[in-house]
Design a protein that fits this description.
Length: about 700
């Protein structure tokens, strides 16, 4: 049963507030959640404040303030009894207080709200902030001008009602520059909430769901009582859950990961090496050893002033002594306890009763010398510089329930620390700590997934797949033109639509930059084809929401009755303008980010010859369940991210050239037949198929003629 409107709105407001509490508790920059280009942290949250914009007021460390007005759903309107007019009224009243610390007025809502607000107005405001003036408004199409005019007229009317005079252009610009539209699909089960929970599992030691619900409850309580919550007070309330006084957290991944190390991780032992190794054949002969022998060494690493030159490690598994002795290393660590654990739990799996275990202890322990303390300081500084949750050996993301911190100390590289997967540890890697990822079992299917990169990339990407979701077709085809690589011209084209709107021609979500010669040629081609199509009763145009371009019959076939058809009536050439492009560009990446699976470093291909890719990593279990209906068991895989469009295109070329069909969000029947998904093709494939069919038609005609 769904929430009533008012209750649903309150729930949405408190979920956004709870997310801001997470940012404040874990000292994350506000820019991670908002469009604000500020490296600033939250100092305090004021719930239902006594301000004109009152749902939530954030005070930043710099003293600047961010004001939130929360609307779960909202429509664009200039009616004085509408919600949008009320929001504008709150923004204007707050501006008139002339608080120099006001930096942003946020309208927080969801994608279910009117696209005129979540897409068009959001984009217009971004363009105005980039240009820092209102001149870019002249470049808007008719519909976008109407959107801006409603906002502008609301502000002008409200200002005049309050001040009894017309607003100055400078005041109008200053108000608009502070207005932001932020989208939070953060209700139960939605993707943004899943991302928040994924952030939390690396930050807390208790049940994630309970912690998240507790924060929402706190937000409800603080909102009901119109209270203010400082960072210090929140940290005091949360320390039981976070156990900040019981463990050390090292921030290893920006923006979200505060990885937790087991106690003592910063107490790096540098004085002694604990090494389990077997001698080479030459060393056995030199030492007079006849039987199979495993040594457990305790070795001093330093002389009084430097590392011992008599002890060297060679990657991946060799230890050499100055006297010529050489050993194959099986295990190396920094503490006696860890060494004993290896002997007890791991060594029995490598040896049998024919081996003799010989302990080679040090004579005594000494206090650390200056050179050892200095080396420890170097390692600690190296640890503090770790900013990426990336395996030091394989270079892939660490997203596992067990990983280690190692000191890298061999002839190739030394004096550094790094994180490694459990199965990536080389025998010469000196293990100094262990990482804990609480509750990672909930996301165990995302093996080696680089969540930090995904969160950064997904904000302004995947436009291709978002558009296709609007289509009524179950198995649409998408074609990539791999020849379109030069986009450096100073001109562009735009279509004029029957409603007066202007729609720029784009390439992969951004305005296509072309030369003047090409622009004029394309303009003439478009105009000619428009006239021909018009005469045929099947004109060119766009769908009204997803802006798919094509003929009337094609558009209706693809979107059905979900959208209207808007006819193109003319095409114009224009000089390229960066500010205008920022308004009209749909995304920074068109195809990326998108995930795929890798098995032993090779792309995972289904039994039906299809290479599956997914737009939502959190839905992977659902797809795996479907794929396994083709009577096979999933192998041990890794989740990989295609991070930019060039990488995506290169991978598509490689796959298709090797007769493998890439499919996005594909689901299949038990017989391997595709039931849903997006077929990926290259332009040359289509051209070759067209040529082949043309040749077949010609051959058929020749045969018919000869028969006559």
């Amino acid at each position: 049963m769904g929430l009533q409107a008012t209750n649903a709105g309150i729930d949405f407001q408190q979920r956004v507030s709870a997310y801001m509490m997470i940012l404040m508790e874990f000292d994350m920059d506000i820019s991670l959640a908002l469009q604000l280009n500020r490296n600033d942290k939250i100092e305090a949250l004021n719930f239902e404040a006594c301000e004109s914009i009152d749902d939530l007021v954030i005070t930043l460390s710099s003293g600047k303030k961010v004001y939130f007005q929360m609307k779960r759903t909202i429509s664009l309107s200039d009616s004085d009894d509408s919600e949008f007019y009320g929001v504008c009224e709150q923004f204007v009243k707050q501006y008139l207080k002339q608080d120099e610390n006001d930096v942003a007025y946020i309208l927080a809502t969801r994608t279910e709200s009117s696209k005129l607000i979540t897409v068009k107005l959001k984009r217009i405001l971004e363009g105005i902030r980039l240009a820092n003036n209102l001149q870019v408004v002249a470049e808007l199409n008719c519909e976008e001008k109407k959107v801006f005019d409603k906002l502008c007229n609301n502000i002008k009317t409200i200002y005049k009602n309050i001040k009894k005079s017309d607003i100055l252009d400078t005041d109008l610009l200053n108000i608009i520059l502070r207005i932001y539209i932020e989208i939070f699909d953060i209700e139960s089960g939605e993707e943004y909430e899943k991302t928040v929970k994924l952030i939390l599992f690396n930050l807390i030691d208790v049940d994630i769901e309970l912690f998240w619900r507790t924060l929402i409850s706190k937000a409800v309580e603080y909102g009901a009582n119109r209270r203010c919550l400082s960072r210090e007070k929140l940290k005091e309330q949360c320390k039981t859950y976070v156990e900040e006084n019981k463990r050390i957290k090292s921030e290893l991944v920006e923006p979200f990961f505060n990885m937790a190390w087991k106690p003592g991780a910063r107490e790096i032992e540098v004085q002694i090496d604990y090494v389990i190794a077997v001698p080479t054949q030459d060393t056995k002969e030199a030492m007079g050893i006849d039987n199979k022998t495993v040594f457990v060494f305790e070795l001093y690493r330093f002389d009084d002033s430097k590392k011992k030159e008599s002890l060297k490690y060679i990657s991946p598994d060799r230890m050499k002594w100055k006297n010529g002795y050489e050993f194959e290393v099986w295990f190396r660590c920094a503490t006696q306890e860890r060494c004993h654990n290896y002997i007890e739990h791991e060594l029995p799996n490598k040896i049998d009763d024919s081996y003799k275990v010989v302990v080679w202890p040090i004579k005594k322990h000494f206090d650390c010398t200056d050179v050892e303390l200095l080396h420890k300081d170097i390692l600690l500084k190296s640890l503090e510089k770790q900013k990426a949750c990336i395996c030091a050996n394989c270079g892939k993301s660490v997203f596992d329930n067990k990983a280690y911190l190692i000191e890298i100390d061999n002839e190739e590289y030394s004096d550094s620390v790094g994180m490694v997967h459990d199965n990536c540890i080389r025998p010469v890697d000196r293990i100094i700590g262990e990482i804990i990822m609480p509750k990672i079992e909930d996301y165990s299917y995302l093996k080696h997934f680089d969540i930090a990169s995904w969160v950064k990339l997904v904000k302004k990407g995947k436009q291709a797949w978002n558009n296709l979701k609007e289509m009524a077709v179950q198995c649409p085809h998408m074609t990539i033109d791999t020849d379109e690589v030069f986009h450096d011209g100073n001109y562009c084209l735009y279509h004029i639509l029957e409603n007066g709107d202007r729609k720029y021609t784009t390439n992969r979500g951004v305005i296509d930059r072309i030369s003047k010669r090409e622009a004029e040629q394309l303009q003439q081609m478009f105009i000619t084809k428009m006239k021909e199509a018009k005469k045929e009763g099947n004109p060119f145009g766009y769908s009204s929401k997803s802006y798919i371009y094509g003929r009337y019959s094609q558009i209706i076939e693809q979107v059905g009755d979900k959208e209207e058809f808007i006819e193109c009536v003319d095409t114009k050439v224009s000089l390229y303008n960066e500010f205008v492009a920022r308004i009209y560009n749909d995304c920074e990446t068109y195809y990326a980010p998108i995930i795929y699976l890798s098995v032993d470093g090779e792309p995972f291909v289904l039994p039906n010859g299809i290479f599956p890719m997914l737009t939502n990593p959190f839905e992977l279990p659902k797809y795996i369940k479907n794929w396994e209906k083709m009577v096979f068991s999933m192998p041990d895989y890794e989740v990989c991210i295609i991070k930019d469009d060039n990488e995506f295109i290169l991978k598509m070329i490689s796959l298709i050239t090797n007769q493998i069909l890439p499919v996005v969000d594909g689901m299949f029947g038990a017989d391997g037949r595709m039931l849903r998904g997006i077929h990926m093709h290259l332009m040359w494939e289509i051209q070759e198929e067209y040529s082949r069919r043309s040749e077949n038609v010609t051959t058929s005609e020749e045969i018919t003629t000869s028969d006559l």
